[in-house]
Design a protein that fits this description.
By secondary structure, this protein is an alpha/beta fold. 48% of the residues lie in helices and 22% in strands.
Length: 167
């Protein structure tokens, strides 16, 4: 199974392609869709969609996984995050991919072992779990963690582990 994992943000979206094969997980790609502060929000949304489309053409994922909506204190931030998520979801939906969402605490639990982990702990564990030679940038590490979470959830479902018992 090959997963397109996205940590959506208007200016700096983490993206990854993570694959499970033969009981082993590996990162095929990880990086960041970087949009400059000078870009209009609408241009950022187009860039996110286009870059995700290119990534999907290149890697042909089976599904898409994203971090679910998070609580933010600023309505402006919430709107920007929602718009970025919308562009990402649209790109995956246009490709016909099933889309899965995971809560931030579940993602941290699946990678670090506790839902309150910080970004550096997630990046460290992602590097160790996937055998990477470098520690990914935090947004890319978050995307990798989302991909790992989805692969673990799919494996648990395949084994018949109830959703309430999954990490």
């Amino acid at each position: 199974m090959r997963v397109l994992a996205i940590d959506a943000s208007l200016r700096c979206s983490g993206v990854a392609i993570v694959e499970a094969s033969g009981g082993k997980q590996r990162a095929l790609y990880f990086g960041v869709i970087q949009n400059t502060a000078a870009m209009r929000a609408s241009s950022c949304l187009v860039a996110i969609r286009e870059q995700l489309q290119n990534l999907m053409r290149q890697h042909e994922p089976d599904c898409c996984a994203l971090e679910s909506v998070i609580y933010v204190q600023s309505y402006k931030t919430a709107i920007a995050l929602g718009a970025a998520r919308g562009a990402a979801i649209l790109a995956a939906a246009e490709r016909g991919l099933p889309i899965y969402e995971y809560a931030p605490t579940r993602i941290k639990q699946a990678t670090v072992g506790r839902g309150g982990a910080d970004k550096s702990q997630v990046a460290f564990m992602v590097r160790a779990m996937l055998g990477l030679t470098e520690t990914p940038q935090s947004d890319a590490a978050d995307a990798l963690a989302i991909g790992i979470t989805h692969l673990r959830a799919e494996e648990a479902a395949r084994l018949g582990v109830p959703a309430s018992a999954q990490i």
